[in-house]
Amino acid sequence: MSNHASLRTVIKENMRNARFLAREVKGSLDRLGRDGEGLPQTARALAELSDKALSRLESLALSIASADPRAHAGHVVALPLALLAKPTAENAELVARTHYAAAKALLIARGVHNPSVSELAFAKAYELAAAAIGDDDREADASAPSRHAAQVAVAIVGAQPVASPAALSGSEGSTQQDANLVVAAILALSMLVVSINDDLTADEGIYEAAAIAVDIRYDDFAEAMRGSDDLTALAGLLAEIAPHLP
After folding, report:
1. Per-domain boundaries in the chain
2. What is the C-alpha separation between 128 and 146, in angstroms, rounded?
3. Of 80, 81, 110, 231, which is most buried by a Cβ count within 10 Å?
4. What is the spatial distance between Cα 177 and Cα 185, in angstroms, rounded to a whole number?
5. Are the C-beta atoms of residues 104 and 117 closer than 8 Å to each other?
6. C-alpha to C-alpha distance for 194 and 208, rounded to whole angstroms
7. 131-146 residue pLDDT tens
8. Is pLDDT above 60 for 148?
9. pLDDT for 39-48, tens place per residue?
10. Any bridge partners for residue 177, and if so which?
């Protein structure tokens, strides 16, 4: 990543961590249900102030650090695997920002009130996946999309971008699912779907369809990751599911 991108990402990362802690403090105090004594009430007021103040401070810091203050916002659009074939600082920032936004939205959709997600970890995952593909494999990109998508999933699981929660409840409410594996599988599957379909638009619910598929096939994804050749197993699973989406 460039120095410019690193500064922007580091600012966002640290401010998000601070806001996450402020919300956690407020949530803990709310659960205690104490509203009369001085300390809890003061702490609650500070937590509420911190969340708002830190959000404003982040916007101010980003406007100073970014040549384009709007660049950090972006839209949650599924990205093609071709971005891995050109591992530039701009592509790394685009993928990290987009995957961060998508992961947070997906976790909130699964009922997570205050997810803690690392954009820096997604940037690391991008670099790991791009490096794993290698120069020779990049030349065969058009014929190996499912394997490249598997590289994305493995890299995301390795980078562990979801700090909280560690686990999610499955659709039946009984199965505990690894949050990082869920996010990795959804993002990798979404990238594969976009890459094998030239006529998809941003409005066709790619992430939502991928999330449903991963929830249904979670046990298969978990089994693939546990195998001795996880890349081949994941590539086969992704190739099986992707043609049926969105």
Report:
1. 1-72, 75-244
2. 17
3. 81
4. 12
5. yes
6. 13
7. 988 754 555 545 589 9
8. yes
9. 555 555 555 5
10. 168
